[in-house]
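Final report, closing paragraph on structural work. Over the funding period we assembled a curated collection of sequence-structure pairs, and we close with a single example.
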Amino acid sequence: MDDLPTFDSRLFVDRQVLVVGGTSGIGAGIAAAFSSLGAKVMVTGASDDDVAAAGADPQLRGAGCMALDVRDDAAVRGCVDGLATLDVLVNCAGVLRRGAEMDPHVFAEVVDINLNGTLRTCAAARDKLRASRGSIINTASMLSFFGGALVPGYSASKGGVAQLTKSLAIAYAQDGIRVNAVAPGWIATRLTDALQSDPARSDPIVARTPLQRWGLPRDVAGPVLFLASPAAAFVTGVILPVDGGYLVT
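Its predicted structure, as stored:
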């Protein structure tokens, strides 16, 4: 990718990267960035429709793609076991059910996907990452740090992802596995289309963001590449905000 000039073009040559939830949005941007630096990339989507859409996405050309329900222990294990090796695991699978998450059943579903799903993939990947002395990058959120009245399940799950990341960083260090997370701010993706297109909601977001714009998936991809690279060899347990300064205002 021409917009990643900081990274050597062969940084991840022949490294196997699995991006769970990598068929669209932030995950697809991360997958494309790894591919551009020589990695062998596998992305997963929640449905066959997601996989079909990813297959038609030019930025994911060359990446393997499969459907995966991160709530299914056996499916998660099968996905990881299907890879000969694994050097980097990126967890981007997530859902948000704005306005419905006060319902305990909806709350539980969101937590199962966003938080429990992250643990499932980490646990399944541990042996392969131990062998490669690889790394994990999870996806937290601004809502790891503060609440959201309409998304209590999402907020709770992302707070959990942050704490899970710290806990696994300690537990997996003995295996030579680094575990970090990025915490994206307001990123322009299909998930945030409704917010972007509504000036009454979008304008206050941009006004509060010191860099005065919405982020893009590639803005998240760079920090993920750093965390997966040898440059971050002594970095583990970090929750790295990628938010244009939103959290500090």
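The helical segments are 25-36, 48-55, 73-81, 104-132, 152-173, 193-196, 199-208, 217-228. The two ends are 31 Å apart (CA to CA). We thank the funder for supporting this effort.
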